[in-house]
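From the methods appendix. Each design record in this collection lists the tokenized structure first, followed by the designed amino acid sequence. Records were kept in a plain field format so they could be parsed without special tools. The example shown here is representative of the layout used throughout.

RECORD:
FOLD TOKENS (119 positions):
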């Protein structure tokens, strides 16, 4: 068994063309897992990722702040304690509202592929 305390996991800059801004950090939770990729992603106010798809399901667990999760059909404001499931292949984005920072844990299968579909 391995137990981690989120506050003790180092925040590293998460630089990617997938994001609409540079105020994003990532905290890898279990980098040695064989089956899952899991990390906390921290978004600055108003920063989100662009529309993208995964080839596996993605689970988000909101840990702090207010954010938006969106598909082509809907946008929902979410907060601490909300849990979101995006099916494999569903075009979506997620990030912070304009007036709040936002953090979530994401869980996907190891080796998953993400395709950005918005410029």
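DESIGN:
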């Amino acid at each position: 068994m391995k137990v981690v305390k989120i506050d003790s996991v180092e925040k590293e800059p998460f630089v990617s063309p997938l994001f609409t801004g540079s105020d994003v950090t990532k905290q890898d939770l279990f980098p040695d897992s064989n089956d899952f990729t899991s990390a906390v992603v921290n978004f600055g106010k108003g920063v989100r990722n662009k529309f993208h798809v995964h080839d596996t399901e993605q689970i988000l667990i909101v840990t702090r702040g207010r954010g938006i999760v969106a598909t082509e059909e809907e946008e929902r404001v979410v907060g601490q304690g909300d849990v979101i499931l995006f099916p494999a292949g569903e075009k979506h984005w997620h990030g912070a509202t304009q007036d709040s920072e936002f953090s979530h844990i994401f869980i996907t299968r190891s080796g998953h592929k993400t395709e950005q579909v918005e410029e």
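APPENDIX NOTE: Residues 6-114 form a domain with the Jelly Rolls fold (CATH 2.60.120.10).
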